[in-house]
Hints:
Blueprint (H helix, E strand, L loop, with lengths): L6 H9 L1 H17 L5 H12 L6 H34 L6 H22 L8 H8 L4 H35 L1
Helix pairs in contact: 2-3, 2-4, 3-4, 3-7, 4-6, 4-7, 5-6, 5-7
Amino acid sequence: MEHAFPDWLSHWAVQSIWWTFGFFFIASVTEMLFPPFPGDAVLFLGLITLQTSEIPVARGVIAATLGGLAGFALLFWFGRSKGRAFFLKRNQGVFSVERLHKVEAWFRKWGALVIIFGRFLAGVRSAVPIVAGVGDYPVSRTMIFGGISVLLWNILLAVFAVAIWFAISVIIIV
């Protein structure tokens, strides 16, 4: 069967499992820290490419999940260490202390759901861990729910990547 991707891309993916893991990890961290970066597209195409290799897709999902969680943790830390001071210093409009207290109360009530499902909203994805940090949401709960969120998202991307690869394979065979 003929490959749908160039041979050099498949060859690169299997040369070293560490290159592949590093690629997925860095793409996921970068996407969290710099939202315009198309990390999901990189991951999706990378997962499709893994279909042509001996590397299991699950390993790519794990690497991307660790990268996404690392980026999530960095943004949470930023919100926790810098965000409160930012609100307290400005204390007006959107950045008022009153708003800060509302964010804290909102996160106490809905934090787990916001963190888990925030990953599925592209425009909100990187703001969620910052707001969790500013809202003083517990670190352990934030990391657990953030990990669940990133893992669910990456599994969903992997399922679509495998389905697309299967569809491409069927078309090539026919």
